Amino acid sequence: MKKNDVDYTDRAVDRAGRKSNLSMFMVMLGFTFFSASMWVGQQLAAGLDWGGFLWALFLGGLILAAYTGSLGFIGAESGLSLDMLARRSFGSKGSYLPSAMISFTQIGWFGVGLAMFAIPVAKELMGLEVTADYMPWQGYLLVAIAGILMTASAYFGIKSLTIISYIAVPAVAILGTVAMILAVRRGDMGLVEQFAQGTKDLGVIAGAGLVVGSFVSGGTATPNFTRFAKNAKVGLWTTVVAFFIGNSLMFLFGAVSSIYAGGNDIFEVMLNLNLFYLAVLVLGLNIWTTNDNALYTGGLGLSNIFGLSKKTMVIISGIIGTVAAVWLYWNFCGWLNVLNCTLPPVGIILILHYFMNRKAYADGTVKEKKVDWFAVAGVVLGAVVANLLKWGFPAINGMAVAAICFLIGQKVQK
Predict the structure, then answer these.
(1) How many Cβ atoms from other residues are within 10 Å of residue 4's Cβ?
(2) I need a surface site. Which of 108, 110, 288, 355 has the fewest CB within 10 A?
(3) Radius of gyration of the CA atoms of the chain, in A
(4) ∠ CA(271), CA(274), CA(278), 5° rounding?
């Protein structure tokens, strides 16, 4: 790659490429601002009382903190992206599997995010009828405009991701919180009393599982962003604090929306408060931050596989996601949730390999084989177990199986 590659596609980020602590915090916080997390907030509100809701957030947040915090630490200390880390742990050719998996899921969520913006705007603000079988041309136009804008900002890499985050994070956090407070004040009962209504048939453990599952997929891409942090400690704390605050806000927005507006998004709360234009602004910025990170990650993954520049692969990924957005929204969310279970096994293998070979990473002497078949087998078996085993946390089940396979492989190879 050229030395002026500001996104360090195939090499470690050097000192000159590192960003300020505030920039890193904003980028990581913006990463969590996604409407799909509000859907989980709706499920949590339906199944848990207020105390159970808080415990589920805390327990799920701890598990996510351990997983994403480890990846954040590794990314910052090594300066390497997820795909460059995978080349060392899975092998130069073996890394194509995790790169393909992360790219596929992130491009999929990018497309779903575009439709999450276009469909509510077409329905609520334009008064158009939108169903799974019919989308008016104005809806497709909205998808295209959003797709072009979000692809353009992801094209310019970490610099534009940082700018978008500086704009979007304060706007979404402040406006969303104000709307939430106004909705609670207008309601007949307080938040705790509202949470107590209905049949509460979700356990805290199951609720924590939903919290983990909502972000463990995207969280696997954490090194792609924390590699720009000043040092490993900054990579760790910005990840843990930003992800906990951001995810908790999204779950709370979704819960309040469900209770007070009968929807699953703060957009609907703001519509009920007659804040039409602010609702569109918050919805768009909320999706933009995560969509940019998703497309950036997809571009890096495809660049590793095909050897083309990240910018080229971002454009291709953006076109695919934009063209398929409406179809993805109506047909693929379930499949994307299945695929979410395939990524934690990748993350745990990156973590184990790094800490077992930390000195070699620091010296740049990690031996890179073509394929580590035990790492590949760990991901495949871990993904199967995560999807089929109905006990405990799917993500942790998958990680446990992948870790066992990988560690056996390390012993055998020695």
Answers:
(1) 5
(2) 355
(3) 21
(4) 70
How many CB atoms are located within 10 Å of the residue 296 CB?
Answer: 28
250-289, pLDDT tens digit by residue?
A: 999 989 888 887 777 788 888 888 888 888 999 899 999 9
Helix (H, G, I), strand (E, B) or coil at 125: helix
**pLDDT over 90 at 130, yes or no:** no
Mean pLDDT of the chain: 90
Q: Give the list of residues 6+ apart from residue 83 with CB closer than 8 angstroms, or none.
A: 95, 98, 99, 102, 300, 301, 303, 304
Judge contact between 372 and 403, C-beta under 8 A: no
330 CB-near residues (< 8 Å, 6+ apart): 115, 132
Question: What domains can you pick out in the chain, each with its CATH number?
Answer: 15-413 (1.10.4160.10)
The answer to whether 88 touches 353, Cβ cutoff 8 Å, is yes
Rounded CA gap, 59 and 372, in Å? Answer: 34
Instruction: Return all residues near 372 (Cβ < 8 A) that are at least 6 apart.
Output: 89, 90, 91, 94, 409
CB 235 within 8 Å of CB 21: no
3-state DSSP assignment of residue 139: helix
pLDDT above 50 for 150 = yes
Kindly state the tokens that stand for 92: 């130069």
Cβ distance 275 to 161 under 8 Å?
Answer: no
371, two tokens = 């394929």
Please count the other Cβ atoms lying within 10 Å of the Cβ belonging to residue 8.
21
The whole-number average pLDDT for the span 170-192 is: 85
What is residue 1's predicted lDDT score, i.e. its pLDDT? 45
